[in-house]
Design goal:
- This protein is an alpha+beta fold and about 350 residues long.
- The protein has 2 domains: about 180 residues, Fructose-1,6-Bisphosphatase, subunit A, domain 1 (Fructose-1,6-Bisphosphatase, Chain A, domain 1); about 120 residues, 3-Layer(aba) Sandwich (D-Maltodextrin-Binding Protein, domain 2), CATH 3.40.190.
- It contains 9 helices and 15 strands.
Length: about 350
């Protein structure tokens, strides 16, 4: 025996290789077979999607940088002693965590230094920020959504929406530049800091999902996000602790879910709950109630961006009954920068079932 394969063995190996190459790819193929040597990065995607608008590309690169820095700070929070309260409250009366303050500072500095933001609205700031800001864009953001979960290592995230200002760039931007319906948003997205750091974004032409590759230091394309037209898995996501304050249609819908085999899933971090809903299907609800007649979630940097992403992924985003009528979230007109609205979003199968209960 020579120790070398004979002609028959070589032929068998070649046949096996061809069989594997001809096999239809599945969702694991990229991981088992190795990704392309040239994966599409978020930086490349931004340049393509900006369509020659260099200032928009600069803004989006500043946003992805803010997400990378936040991800790093969150990963190191335990050893750095950054868990716990900061001892203050934010603009909407929530107790601030140390990481709320840090994430807010990161986002503000990244956006101001981009040189293309004329106005910033942050959940953590009482007023609009225009000092040190110049440029054609206005950005509203929640620097750390779901931060009440941060100390127990549950997924949190950042949410943002981008508007193009209408006032002259020769003077400071005004609140009117951002107090507009969500239909005027040009880019929306969120970054989720969980088992992986993922950034989901829409430029109004579908929704794309990127994951941060620590080895590259880049967000790399994962997939387009499109909700199952049939509604996907039967999942409802809401805080049932508020059920005694809900109106009858919401109570009836949730009871119907329980009676028809729906699974209950609720993280308490909007980014996590909506991300799961987009990927798996079902519905996410944070409705108005007797205690909070406008709901709890803020319009500019929670409701609008998540509604735009949901619609671009093929879902539906409604307020339910709000100010006397059932409304599309993106058509709500915010009254002030920290205004709130009810949230009912997900697949058409479930959202339409809720809205029909209002008659």
């Amino acid at each position: 025996m020579s120790g070398y394969p004979n002609q028959d063995e070589i032929a068998q190996l070649k046949a096996k290789i061809k069989e594997l190459e001809d096999k239809a790819p599945n969702e694991f193929s990229a991981y088992l077979g190795g990704r392309s040597n040239c994966p599409l990065t978020l930086t490349q995607y931004i340049i393509q999607s900006a369509e020659g608008d260099q200032q928009l590309a600069m803004l989006m690169n500043a946003i992805q940088h803010a997400c990378k820095v936040c991800s790093d700070r969150i990963q190191k929070a335990g050893p750095a002693g950054l868990y716990g309260l900061a001892g203050e409250q934010n603009s909407t009366g929530d107790d601030q965590k140390k990481l709320d303050v840090i994430a807010d500072r990161i986002w503000i500095e990244c956006l101001q230094r981009s040189g293309v933001c004329g106005l910033l609205v942050s959940e953590e700031q009482d007023e609009c920020l225009t000092e040190g800001c110049k440029g054609p864009f206005c950005v509203a953001f929640d620097p750390l959504d779901g931060s009440s979960n941060i100390d127990c290592n549950v997924s949190v995230g950042s949410i943002f929406s981008v508007y193009r200002r209408t006032s002259s760039e020769n003077q400071p931007a005004e609140q009117a530049d951002i107090l507009k319906p969500g239909t005027q948003i040009i880019v929306a997205g969120y970054c989720m800091y969980g088992a992986a750091c993922e950034l989901v974004v829409t430029f109004g032409k579908g929704v794309q999902r990127f994951a941060l590759d620590p080895a590259l230091g880049e967000f790399v394309f994962v997939s387009d996000m499109k909700m199952d037209p049939s509604g996907g898995k039967k999942i409802f996501s809401c805080n049932e602790g508020n059920s005694q304050h809900w109106d009858k249609p919401i109570v009836d819908f949730v009871e119907t879910c329980k009676d028809t085999g729906y699974a209950a899933r609720y993280v308490g971090s909007m980014v996590s709950d909506v991300h799961r809903t987009l990927l798996y299907g079902g519905i996410f609800l944070y409705p108005a109630d007797k205690k909070s007649v406008k709901g709890k979630l803020r319009v500019l940097y929670e409701g609008f961006p998540m509604a735009m992403i949901t619609e671009q992924a093929g879902g539906v985003a409604s307020t339910g009954m709000f100010k006397g009528k059932v409304q599309r979230i993106l058509e709500v007109m915010p009254e002030h920068i920290h205004d709130r609205c009810p949230i009912i979003m997900g697949g058409a199968r479930d959202v339409d079932a809720v809205t029909k209960l209002y008659g």
